[in-house]
Amino acid sequence: MVRVMASGVFDILHTGHLSYLEQARSMGDELVVVVACDSTVRVRKHEPITPEDMRLRLVGALKPVDRAILGGNGDMFETVAMVQPDVIVLGYDQTFDTEALSRELADRGLGDIRVVRAGECADDLNATRRIVNRIRTMGDSR
Q: Does the pTM of the predicted model rise above 0.90?
């Protein structure tokens, strides 16, 4: 059995998220998705629009997802050690360097984990920031 791990914020679910998770699911037999906790989102991106418990529930309900877990606010490698994936799939827009991440995983003795990057979804409004900007623009036109 090949366990795949994907991770993200998943704030305002959209087709880009679904494409990412479908791609990740196609790379193995089981997909575990790590949903970033609110404190991590605040530090790395923005104030979350949707609270972590809602994001976790929504992601867990998606067809490609076998299990969704809430990420911690500490060392991300602790979560990797807990999940024990064979493959980590990064979103096309995630800032991790695949080679550097592979080296760090090996240096930490986390086994032979393959790190790959998902492709971009071509659908319109496939990013949360685009959706938020579109909503703002719609409100401005009244």
A: no
